[in-house]
Amino acid sequence: MNCDILKVYFLGSGRIAVPILSSLKKSPRISLAGIGTQMDRPAGRKNLVTPTPVGDWCRENGISPDKPASVNSPEFLEKLRGMDGLDMIFVSSFGQLLKQEILSLPRLGCINLHASLLPAYRGASPLQAAILNGDLKTGVCFMQMEKGLDTGPVFSTSEYQIQAGQKADELEYALGVLAASDTENVLLDIASGLLKPVPQDNAKATYAGKIRKEHGEIRWNSPAVEIERKLRAYHPWPGVFFNLQNGGRKIRMAITELACLDISGTPGRILKADKKDLIVACGDGAVSLKKVVPEGKREMSGTEFVRGCQDIEGVVLANV
């Protein structure tokens, strides 16, 4: 290879990958051999087929990305093998597991940008886990990919202070901006041998599993502060929600904004439902529902919802 130019194939899908991809495209010392992202999928309330954030970025920049149904398929592997002098595959929030055959294909292997301070929160949802657990800081790691799930040695780590009220999508983008400021230098220093991989301490490893839709259902016996963290961690997907029986029908209610209150009551009881507030008691404290989305309707204030339904003050919502 030309020792001054690093030939990199980029695999990414999520918001965190966008600022990183932008920085690599501008780099005079990195040549993007191609970009791969997840296939377009139905998303949103109307289930419209939607590209990934990386797919959106590619469209805006006049680039046609690869969208392999399986990154490990013989067809995609053959495409990568056809890229002469491929030095590295860089992975950021791609969404598919890479098998050993692809991990060992480039000259320098595959480098992953992981959104945690490894070995904390290995797995699919590290930044959500940081919010759920009330962590004050998180960060990003550049790591060598290997067969195990996020077990590879780490080249570089950067810390980030989680902001008050920060939601998962905001944190994801902020971590992408943080990583983007270092990505070019880190990849070049890996290629030159200046950065050496440091093994993780497996005894300190923790895990953050894949998020499922049902994780967003609220347990009212949880402390109010945990419900507030859950709202931020699961924004925009799967969101947080509960079921309300009103007028003989069950309404699924999503909460998009709330405030914690230092008052008590039976967990799940609606303590107040009038033109001034909509308050639900929790296991410790209570929450004021500032904005809600009744199933099939638009977002509205909690008090606006109260005006359009039967008297619900005193109702006890089911715990799950």
Protein architecture, described:
- It is a single chain.
- The protein is an alpha/beta fold and 320 residues long.
- It has 2 domains: 6-208, Formyl transferase, N-terminal domain (Rossmann fold, 3-Layer(aba) Sandwich), CATH 3.40.50.170; 213-307, Formyl transferase, C-terminal domain (Methionyl-tRNA Fmet Formyltransferase, Chain A, domain 2, Roll), CATH 3.10.25.
- It is 24% helix and 28% strand.
- It contains 8 helices and 16 strands.
- The protein has helices spanning 17-26, 53-60, 74-81, 100-103, 126-132, 168-192, 224-233, 302-307; strands spanning 6-12, 30-36, 41-43, 48-50, 88-92, 110-114, 122-123, 137-144, 154-161, 207-208, 240-246, 249-261, 270-273, 278-281, 286-294, 300-301.
- The strands form 4 sheets. It has a 6-stranded mixed beta sheet with strand order 2-1-5-6-8-9. Strands 11, 12, 13, 14, 15 and 16 form a 6-stranded antiparallel beta sheet that branches. Strands 3-4 form a two-stranded antiparallel sheet.
- Helix 5 packs antiparallel against helix 7 (224-233).
- It is elongated.
Layout of helices and strands:
Layout: E1 6-12, H1 17-26, E2 30-36, E3 41-43, E4 48-50, H2 53-60, H3 74-81, E5 88-92, H4 100-103, E6 110-114, E7 122-123, H5 126-132, E8 137-144, E9 154-161, H6 168-192, E10 207-208, H7 224-233, E11 240-246, E12 249-261, E13 270-273, E14 278-281, E15 286-294, E16 300-301, H8 302-307
Structure at a glance:
The protein is α/β, with parallel strands linked by helices and 320 residues long. 24% of the residues lie in helices and 28% in strands.
